[in-house]
Amino acid sequence: MALGAELPARQVVTDPLRRLAYGTDASFYRLTPEVVAVVESEAEVQAVLRAARAHGRPVTFRAAGTSLSGQAVTDGVLALIGEGFATCEIPPGAASVHLGPGMVGGDVNARLAPHGRKIGPDPASIATCKIGGIAANNASGMCCGTAQNSYQTVEAMRVVLADGAVLDTADGESVAAFRRSHAELLQALARMAAETQADAALAQRIQHKYRIKNTTGYSLNALVDFNDPIDILAHLMIGSEGTLGFISRITYRTVADDPCKASALVFFPTLEHACQAVLGLRRLQVSAVELLDRASLRSVQDKPGMPAAMRTLGEDAAALLVEVRAQTAPALQLRIESALGVLAPFPTVEAASFSTDPAVCESYWKVRKGTFPSVGAMRRTGTTVIIEDVAFPVESLAAATLDLQAAMRRHGYPEGIIFGHALEGNLHFVFTQDFSDAAEIERYARFMEDVCTLVVDEYDGSLKAEHGTGRNMAPFVEREWGPKAMQLMRRIKALFDPGTLLNPGVILDDDPRAHLKNLKPMPAAEAVVDRCIECGFCEPLCPSHKLTLSPRQRITSWRERSRLAAAGESTAEIDASFGPLGLDTCAACSLCSTACPVGIDTGDLVRLLRDRRAAPVERALNRWSADHFGAFASLSRMGLRVGHAAARLAGDELLARVSGGAWKKQMPQASRRVVAPRPHAGDPVVYYPTCSGRIFGDGTPGQPSLHEVVTEVLTRAGYAVRLPEGVERLCCGQMLASKGRAEEAEAMSDTLADALLRAADDGQGGYYPVVMDASTCALRMKKHLAGRLEVLDFHEFAHDALLPRLRIRRGTAPVALHVNCSVRRSASDEKLRQVLRACTENVVEPGSVTCCGFGGDVGFTAPELNAHALRHVPAQLPEACCSGVSTNRTCEIGLTDRTGRTYRSIAYLLEECSRPDAVEAAC
């Protein structure tokens, strides 16, 4: 295609590896796009549509790719929504919000939270999915029901149609111009609405279908709810899954985010009793009622922190997770009492009770959130996890759930579980499926046929409640809706997209077996990632996402490479690209594991593959550095001195260019060697200065190195500092672990552990506190010494032990904070914030920043990763903010280089603010 003439070259992806990787969504379908176009503006969307029309190629728009029904895959043109569409404008009062389709739903709610508001839709994937997908799928969730979904809360939108025309429903001039240019389309919509409303049986059928959740087919309720064709058009776009046009901007009415919350996890002896209780709770002001069958409870009952009662439940048992919310504590208490009153007549395994303790409530919700991952974690390698969602009339919920359980057993899915949003009659059922042979595919086909019979013929429910029709229910739309409604849908599609340009095969498909085609292979690749379900929840946390590959895309790529190798086919094409795209630009920060439903750390895969590809010379150098770390550190310091000498002659900028970005414009000086402090009275504490601080000193010549600053502040607080013996020769091994050299890294950790244990031994069977000054190293040694010795990151020790002892003069100058990935993984970020707040009244913490992308030494070898990860930070720092803090020396190097502000360890600021004659530092 001629997209190269329409878009910048960097936005047109044609290489096989990225087309495969970028074309993957969370569904069990696989299509590889011909070309991927990253669109950053309406003009670029129009350009893509223009080129597609000229060449007769279909276009599929894609936001986050968390879609479960195959609506975001294509073998044509995949238009990825770029960051140019990540816009969020909150008008005064926050009663509404104007959003671009590239905004992540969770980020929108974070911006609305200070106003006590949120958007209505609340899908389980809200921390990952984007507004474009939320609107295009009419996604709902646990609390929004049918009253606060996109259809009900949309206020206005801008949309680009297949012919390139743009309509802004909030702009009178745009509407007037559209009425003139597209009079025929609007007249056709008006006629369809009039015909539908005049057909009493059809109108009643449509209204009935939307009393429960329903995302099967097009939003036909627009034809009975509205008369103005502009309103009809806007509401037809909701749930249209990119088959009618592209939503480039949407305005939602926001809803209240009640601050007071309480939850109860109630166990019932039978599922029928639980469902009867739901009917009573529906009459109250409850925010969520989640139903869990016995199989779903069993899938998580042995995990840490689960209620003990779960392991003793009978085979017919079920549970309801009930949440109530209110604006005030008294109002919340009234709602709790009302809910308990409704539950009182029903038999329960234990007396129902609500908790307002956030930790307790979180433990209840872990039960619900752990069910889907539990199936994914237990599935056999090579099989796919399928999550379907249907809706039944609530009064039929008990019988329908039992029938669904029976159908799963009948078709050989004993591991299947059922849970869902009970207030809406919305059930999710999860099972594993092998698509590797024809017999298994036919078993799945028979099961889905039975599901359709159950949902449509027996209960007149919805085959798709909130996940969108996509590809896997497209053949069944007419069966659910009937021929009259189906004819309306066909007319709508033909009216908006006469050339079938937009996402063909989605929502409408005449092929009765379309849902059984283009099934995604899930071959065994590596044990560390074989449980991946390709949901994409990892992507927002990954610093290389949108630069090269995300964790999901790395796994997808390696799976395809493994499939080719197993089939005896050439892997050369993937091998040529996977090194630079998959390995060299991975920070291996492991943040992906914190968002992964099944706990996969894609960094483990990267480290494994880095080790396999290492050349003999590299292996020898790694072994030498492990065996002679003292010499390695001395050589590194010498290299810094030589580099600074060269920079004085040639300049930092030239040296940076010549070194490919390895040399930084504000490269630190070489650190001074560690000198044991003079013995003095005080409470003993063991301090291990990590190797990054022993190599990289301050950015300004003559300033103290990190170990000197930490020693000073510990001494000032009344501690007698003890260093482990041979400290200059010690290293935790993290630098080699990130390269995949696990054996050498483990040996280095063992050596350091022995030295720390000896240094911390108090001679009375106990140990003195052990403090480290780099979060990554502290986290590694915490795990290595777990159960033997407690290791504290400096900011943790500062929070717990130093703040109470030091007299701190709190400054007013703004200080930027970077919470690095190790602090996030150790869940000690709030302690870091509290230490910083003790030092300054003005904390600046840029949003949407996770890992800085420096990745140990990756920032020297692949500086583009650091630049990409921090690309949004400079614009978020006020001009008056001239300094920043973090807790990893290499992270601070990258932050300083990319923001133009000096970032140092939080220890520097704490030392400055606790001096007897402390004065606020100026820029």
Automatic annotation (TrEMBL):
User: What InterPro entries has UniProt attached to this entry?
Assistant: 4Fe4S_Fe-S-bd, 4Fe4S_Fe_S_CS, Cys_rich_dom, FAD-bd_oxidored_4_C, FAD-bd_PCMH, FAD-bd_PCMH-like_sf, FAD-bd_PCMH_sub1, FAD-bd_PCMH_sub2
What Gene3D superfamilies has UniProt attached to this entry? 3.30.465.10, 3.30.70.2190, 3.30.70.2740, Alpha-helical ferredoxin, Uridine Diphospho-n-acetylenolpyruvylglucosamine Reductase, domain 2, Vanillyl-alcohol Oxidase, Chain A, domain 4
Q: Name one Pfam family in it.
A: FAD-oxidase_C
Cofactor(s) demanded = FAD
The protein's enzyme class: oxidoreductase
UniProt KW keywords: FAD, Flavoprotein, Iron, Iron-sulfur, Metal-binding, Oxidoreductase, Transit peptide
Q: Which family does it belong to?
A: Belongs to the FAD-binding oxidoreductase/transferase type 4 family.
Q: What is this protein called?
A: D-lactate dehydrogenase (cytochrome)
Species whose genome carries this gene: Ramlibacter monticola
